């Protein structure tokens, strides 16, 4: 597939000395300064309103033993601006790509090699990448790229006491002082992006990650002390080969004044190319929605049991039913899948099927095994595939993932990626990637590592979901850990995923009297939103308050962490002057749901003054 964003390669002969280059955001508040330091290393600094928020940090990639960010001389500049909009599935329906851009020629003096530094300054962040022209095969051995954060920052990162931490991105979000980050983890100083820094003195937040990962090795972040995070590539010291031009992924620094700005950033998707018009000429098959899923509650069933799941999906008004690991062992498995897909079609429920990535990862014959599987899936009439156990973000794994998305799109199949790294904006270029894991989700409640704490759920909207969809698979009434049922229901709203796979068995949702008070609310919760507002009382890991709008309806979701939280002076101004019929779901005890209804402007609001630890609350406002 042709790249739709073409790198700008500057002519080496036009180099000239420049002591420093500034790139300002469109609103003028943010300034990125690119220069060489006293050692002639290429560095960048980010300030906002005259205050330095990111101290001089390295830019550099090492190719065939040459660090292109050392012995550097700045040269010719080319500047432009971008301002466009595009549709997205996420916390809002329309994203804006508004930035000032720079292409700066860099010469490595010792070798005479030249490259181009591309940079973009947004109102809420800064990103850069390196383009190195070349021919034949070269080896990328690593990066010197770094982020030097404010000294007293608090860092939020995904922790897991397991070697799987860096393979599946399924860590629990916890925090530590920046100074402790090199030693705080049992698994060492390397962390999975995104990393979020709470800045001192009320200066807001910095989120560090990457965007547009293609033909490259995935970025992790190594805490090396002195307030510094350094790029650590998944392929390690052996490096990885590049044929022809090298284009690194974007190195991204999001700077948000508050949590509302953080949740509503568009930077990650904006740094990715739009969909290929030929590959995605028809988008009608790409439909967000909810899915039932038997695996979490009872394991994958027989064909008859999975047929019953489809019927329950239809009763719930859900759009999909997911058949997970185990279906391939059925006698005449593809025939049974075809029968289920046909039955689902008659009930307006799309069928999704699971596949182990290791069975289709061989690139021989342009992934002949993958093609065969996808052809069979398409022939059987399924809507999409869930491909699992990637467990790597090596260059080879990234190539496999992107080829899967292309081949699935050619067959008009949705793709769910599991056992995988963080998103870097792939769903803009490949909208058939309807969701991906790369998050510590509810399936952990059925594993030996223990239950997911409420604090993790109250952190996710401000860290993991900022960079893209996360297949958390919410709602586990039957195994809630220490959280309440209302907390579990609330996670259906706070989870960011265009395809929402609901963990709880639909039989309980439909037929258990104890959860019936919330059934109509659950049925009404959408998976994509027109608008999201984060209320100012929100605190990462302690209290998440999100107001989300779909059409004229609002959903207010409140999640408490592991301590009680005050709801006094809650600002409901997002409702404006309109009148709404309100339905509130709370938990009077851990495994119970209570329903209250009233009309705004006419009745007294029953909103509680405080939310208990591990609790949650949902209000559905229907416009009158």
What does this structure look like?
With 624 residues, this protein is α+β, with helices and mostly antiparallel strands. It folds into three domains: 259 residues, Beta-galactosidase, Chain A, domain 5, CATH 2.70.98; 150 residues, Aldolase class I (TIM Barrel, Alpha-Beta Barrel); 92 residues, Golgi alpha-mannosidase II (Immunoglobulin-like). Helix content is 17%, strand content 35%. The strands form seven sheets. Strands 7, 8, 9, 10, 13, 14, 16, 17, 21 and 22 form a ten-stranded antiparallel β-sheet that branches. Strands 28-27-26-25-24-23-29 form a seven-stranded parallel β-sheet. Strands 30-31-32-37-34-35 form a six-stranded antiparallel β-sheet. It starts with 19 loop residues before the first strand and ends with a strand. 51% of the residues are buried. The N terminus is likely disordered.
The CATH topology annotation of the largest domain reads as Beta-galactosidase, Chain A, domain 5
Radius of gyration: 24 Å
CATH classification class of the largest domain:
Mainly Beta
Whole-number mean pLDDT: 96
Helix and strand content put the structural class at: alpha+beta
Q: What is the second-level CATH architecture of the largest domain? A: Distorted Sandwich
Q: Helical region count? A: 13
| Silhouette | globular
Helix content estimate = 10-25%
What's the main sheet like?
Answer: 10 strands, antiparallel
Using DSSP, what is the number of strands? 37
Unreliable runs = 1-17
Number of domain units: 3
Strand content: 25-35%
Question: How far is the first residue's CA from the last residue's CA?
Answer: 48 Å
